[in-house]
Automatic annotation (TrEMBL):
It holds the Pfam family GCFC. One of its GO terms (cellular component) is U2-type post-mRNA release spliceosomal complex. Residues 1-135 form the GCF C-terminal domain. It comes from the Eukaryota. GO terms for biological process: spliceosomal complex disassembly. It comes from Cafeteria roenbergensis (Marine flagellate). This is GCF C-terminal domain-containing protein.
Length: 157
């Protein structure tokens, strides 16, 4: 057994070497049958709140070989991110760094649904709770600035 998170570079090299003597269709089937389940298992074990290595680092290299092989892992990552975002705070920019690379893989419908379910309500609550009052020398209170920064970050993504 190989660890998709740790061994992806070596496995990619092996697949590339075998691909020189195999058809593209055969390689796609090998990746779908051997790599896909390993990616899904690794995504199931991945923790959105504690793992330091983002899953796109070990999932995305396989997109070139077979987008279908990554779909189960992508679904698992989406479910894990959905759960983790229940605890998310708008000042935490790390969520955007993990989510942004997945937008094209999940597609606009799933990405928008996740943002509407988990991100938008938190940003709205933070905006409502922010203190907007002048502070010396005529700027906004720091909490209002950090909320505004969070909203701008998410709107740009």
């Amino acid at each position: 057994d190989w660890d998709a998170r740790r061994d992806t570079p070596a496995c990619l090299a092996l697949v590339a070497a075998v691909a020189t003597v195999s058809s593209a269709g055969a390689m796609r089937r090998v990746v779908e049958r051997a790599v896909g389940p390993a990616l899904e298992a690794a995504a199931t074990r991945w923790s959105a709140t504690t793992d330091r290595l983002p899953p796109h680092a070990w999932v995305f290299p396989w997109l070139a070989w077979s987008p279908a092989a990554v779909l189960p892992a992508a679904s698992s990552v989406l479910a894990k991110m959905d759960s983790a975002l229940a605890l998310w705070r708008p000042g935490d920019a790390s969520a955007l760094a993990v989510l942004a690379p997945w937008a094209d893989v999940w597609g606009p419908t799933a990405s928008r649904a996740l943002a509407a379910r988990r991100i938008a309500p938190r940003l709205a609550a933070a905006c409502e709770a922010a203190t907007v009052e002048p502070s010396p020398p005529g700027g906004l209170a720091p909490s209002a600035v950090s909320v505004a920064d969070a909203v701008v970050r998410w709107c740009r993504s």
